[in-house]
Amino acid sequence: MQVCSTEFVTLGRAQARALGFPDLPIAVVPHPFGRHTRDKVREIAEQCVEDIAKLACTAVPPGSTATTASGKRALKVDVADDADAINRLFRERRWTDGLPVVPPTVERVERMLRCTPRAADELVAAVAPGFGVATVERIAINAVMAGCDAECLPVLVAAVEAMAAPEFNAQGIQATTNPVAVWLIVNGPIAKRLHLNAGINCLGQGNWGNATLGRALRLILQNIGRALPGEMDRATLGQPGKYSFCCAENEEQNPWEPLHVERGLRPEQSAVTVVGAEGTLNMNTHSKDPDEVLRVFAETLPRPSGNDYFLGGDPWIILCPEHAQVLKAGGLSKAEVKHRLWEASKMPARRMTAVDMQLTRVRRGTELGAISPDTLLPICPAPEQLGIVVCGGPGTHSLYVPSFGNTRSVTREVIWAA
Amino acid sequence: MAGSIVVFDPVAPKRDGPQQSRRALDGLAGKVVGFVDNGKPNFNHLVDDLAELLKSRHGVKSTVKHSKRSASIPAPDEVMEDLAGRCDLVITGAGD
Q1: Band of the pLDDT at A374, cuts 50, 70, 90?
Q2: Which chain A residues have a beta carbon less than 8 Å from that of B21?
C-alpha cells in the first residue's frame, strides 16, 4: 500500500500500474505534508490509520490481473495527409513536447532503420517510469518526429541503453519535482559525421544535429518512458533543457584526453554520455592565472540549496577552450583540476537550513559519518566523480552543470557504420 | 480534400509481465505491518504514529520500520527481502 500526499496520487497510481500492480491501494494525506506541525501529523495519522485498515481489507475487484501485451512492433494510425491534421492528432494525444513534429511515416522510419544493423523489433531497454518497451523501431519513430537525420539513430540507441543503467536512476530523474533534464554529450568520430556543434553556442540554438538529438531523447522519455508533465513527470518548474540538451565535446581544443577516452574507450571509437543535469551556471573570468581561475570556480560551486551538496552528486564543469588552456599551461592534468576543485569547493554544512542539514545527515551519513554545522561537505563523494568536458568557442565562459544528485552519468559506445 | 496517410504511434506499451494482484487481508489483528520511510520531512513521524495506532486500535501484532536514504532511490534489496519475508502488509510513502 502507498501513502501519497494529494499532489502525488496521480504519480502513485500511474507508477503502480507501470510496475504491474494496478490495484495497489493508496491512502491519501494532505499536501504539502512536510509543512505540518507535529500535532497536525498526529491528527492526520488518526484518520489515515482508518483509511489504511479499510483499504487493506477491501476485496480486489475481479479481472484486474491480465497480462500486458508485449507490443514489439509499433502501432500505426490513419490520419488525413495534412500537416495541420497530423499535428492536431499528435497534440490531442499528448505525443509531442509541445512543438510541431515531423510525421513519422512508414517511409521515414524505414529510412532511419537502415542506419543500424539492429532489428526493428529488438528491445533496447524498458524506459522508466512507465517501463515502455524501447525497441529500435520506437526510438526511430520518436527520432523522426524530432526531425533527426537518419544517421542519428545509433546515438539514440546508445543513449537509451545508457539511461537504463541503474546508476543513472532514470526512475528518479523522470518522476522527480526537481528541474532535471538529460544532457547528451557526444564524443568520437560520429560527432563530425553528424555535424554536431562542439564549438560556438554549442548548447544554444542553430545546429540541426544538437537540437534534434536532444529533442528526440525528450520525446523518447515522454512517449516511451511515459513521463508526461503533471502525471508521472512531477517537475515543479522543469527547465528549458527538457526540450533539448545536447552537444559534442570540443576534442580538437581539449588539451587533455576527451571524455570517452577518460572512460576507457579508444579515441577512434564514438560514444554518448548521459547526465542528469539541472541547468547551467555561467562562470565568467578573464584571469589567465590558473590558481585564480580554479579559486573562482571553486567559490562558485557551493550552494546551500544544491542537490550536489545534499546528496553527494554528479556535478559537471564545462570548460571553455580558453579556460582549459589556462589550466593546461599551468601544468595541470584533468585529474589535478578535478582534485583541486573538489577540495576547494567543500561547503560548511552550516550554510544549509536546519531541516536540509538534517536531511543531509540521513542522505550522506554513510559516506561522511556524523555531520555537524562545521563539517565540510564535498560536492561529490570523490574527486574523480567531478565531470569535466571541454566545449564551446572563443570567450571566457565556462559552465557549472549542477546534477540531480541521485544519479551517476553513464557513457556507452555508439555502434555505427563509419 | 486531403487523402490519408499512415503514421506510427510513438507511444510504447509497458514491458511484458503479469499484472499482479494484491491479497485483501481478513482484518489486521495479529498481522505484521512494515513501513518504508521515504526520508521526506515528517514521514518518520507519520510512520511512528501509524505504527502505534495500528497496534492500539486494530490489534496489529508488530511493525517493521525501514527508511530510505533518499526518496528518489529504490529501497535496497535486503530491505525488500526483509519486508517480504516478515510482513502481511507493507506501507510506502510517495510525495512531499
Answers
A1: very high
A2: 21, 23, 60, 64-65
| Residues A100 and A249 reside in one and the same domain | yes
Which residues of chain B make contact with A95, given a CB cutoff of 8 A? 9-11
Q: Is A340 found in the same domain as A255? A: no
Q: Single out the residue of B18, B13, B38 nearest to residue A8, CA to CA.
A: B38
Of the pLDDT bands very low, low, confident and very high (cuts 50, 70, 90), residue B17 is confident
C-alpha cell at A310: 545534499
Residue A207 in this model has a pLDDT that exceeds 50: yes
Work out the minimum CA distance from B88 to partner chain A, whole angstroms.
10
Boundaries of domain holding B88: 32-92
Instruction: Indicate whether A418 belongs to any domain.
Output: no
The residues in A 352-381 lying below 8 A from B, measured between CB atoms, are 355, 359, 362-363, 366
Q: Give every strand in the sheet of A181-187, ordered side by side.
A: A246-248, A181-187, A271-277, A410-413
Contact across the interface for A2 and B91, Cβ inside 8 Å: yes
Q: How far is CA A265 from CA A23, A242, A268, A269, A386, in A?
A: 46, 28, 8, 6, 19
Amino acid A251 reads E
Give the orientation angle of helix A136-146 with respect to helix A106-113, to 10 degrees: 120
Q: Say whether the peptide bond before residue B10 is cis (omega within 30 degrees of 0).
A: no
Provide CB contacts within 8 A for A99, sequence distance 6+.
Answer: A215, A243
Is residue A346 located within the same domain as residue A254? no
Give the total number of structural domains in chain A: 3
Question: Cell numbers 522508466 label which residue?
Answer: A128
What is the distance of C-alpha B32 from the center of its chain?
A: 15
Using a CB-CB cut-off of 8 Å, the residues of chain A touching B11 are: 93, 95, 132, 223-224, 226
Count of domains observed in chain B: 1
Per residue in A85-109, is it b (16+ CB within 10 Å) or e — as a string? ebbebbeeeebbbeeebbbbbeebb
The pLDDT of residue B1 is 54
Residue B73 has pLDDT above 60, yes or no: yes
Domain, as residue range, for A245: 83-262
What global pTM score does this model have?
0.93
